[in-house]
Amino acid sequence: MTRVRPAAVAGLFYPRDPDRLAAAVAEALDVPVRADEPAPKAVVVPHAGYVYSGPTAGVAYARVRRLRGQVTRVVLLGPAHRAWVEGLAVSGADAFATPLGTVPVDDVLRRRALACPGVVVDDRAHATEHSLEVQLPFLQQALGTFAVLPVAVGEASPEMVATLLEAVWGGLETLVVVSSDLSHYLDYETAAARDRRTATAIVAAESGAIADDDACGARPVRGLLLAARRHGLRVRLLDLRSSGDTAGDHDRVVGYGAFAVSAEAPEPTVQTSRRTRS
User: At the top level of CATH, which class does the domain 4-262 belong to?
Assistant: First the structure.
């Protein structure tokens, strides 16, 4: 019998109705992409409710959409919010469901991951985890058909994360997605300054300069940066804003950044939507 992890945050973080969900994702993906940009091997994207972070996620996934028909495997890492995890946790499910359909879990990649230190099967970590689930509708719209390896990252070192990534790195058929918001619940201007510093560290692949409270997905981000350095890849900032720019007030905001990891290329124009206090 197929074991499907049901959608846990549909109707909360994103629309439950398939038509409304597809329309919301399509709107977020409707951003220009320069023709001379390289295809990303990995992206870092936020994971808040779509009304807050969807526009920033869409900037990254607009680049991913160009890989439709090429990418058939997605390695998806995000922080474990709902259950304590020592190391990294993969799911025992055969598929993950969203209102747009089901995405099969890549069992070959899961077995490779389980051969790495600190990786276990832990469905508690996946049962209600939103950081991974909210990425799936974007991936479904951008890529069409693919298999996913969802990984909830807990108390894991950059080396542990990078070791897992190396085991499942693959070639052009494999995309890595790291799910992470940036600063949390600071005032607008303080958050903007802090997120700029964090974005600078991410672009420079300086994992040691990214503290746990700089980004809720700091652990998977640090591991990705280590892997990117080893593969000679470059990190580019695509978008930087906060909930104060989208659907929230300026008193307590959450920061969002979109980044692409790829080969060398001219810098894209960074998209931002920071507004001034009225």
Answer: alpha beta
How far apart are the C-alpha atoms of 174 and 148, rounded to whole Å? 10
What is the signed CA dihedral for 57, 104, 218, 81, rounded to 10 degrees? 100
Pair of tokens at residue 79: 């922080």
Amino acid at position 59, single letter: V
| Pairing of the two strands 253-262 and 184-186 | antiparallel
Residue 274's pLDDT is 52
CA 137, 141, 146, 149 dihedral sign is negative
Tell me how far apart the 2 most distant CA atoms of the chain are, in Å: 57
Torsion of CA 129, 170, 218, 111, to 10 degrees: 50
* pLDDT tens-place string over residues 27-80: 999 999 999 999 999 999 999 999 999 999 999 999 999 999 999 999 999 999
d(CA 23, CA 99): 12
Q: Is residue 76 helix, strand or coil?
A: strand
Residue type, 70: Q
Binning pLDDT at 50, 70 and 90, where does residue 275 land? very low
DSSP letters spanning 102-161: EEEB-HHHHHHHHTSTTEEE-THHHHS-HHHHTHHHHHHHHHSS-EEEEEEE-S--HHHH
CA distance 94 to 110: 11
**The pTM is what?**
0.94
pLDDT digits (tens, 9 = 90+) for 134-188: 999 999 999 999 999 999 999 999 999 999 999 999 999 999 999 999 999 999 9
Q: Specify the 3-state DSSP secondary structure of 220.
A: helix
In DSSP terms, which residues pair with 96 in a beta bridge?
Answer: 5, 103
> Which of 178, 3, 171, 163 has the alpha carbon at shortest distance from 72?
171
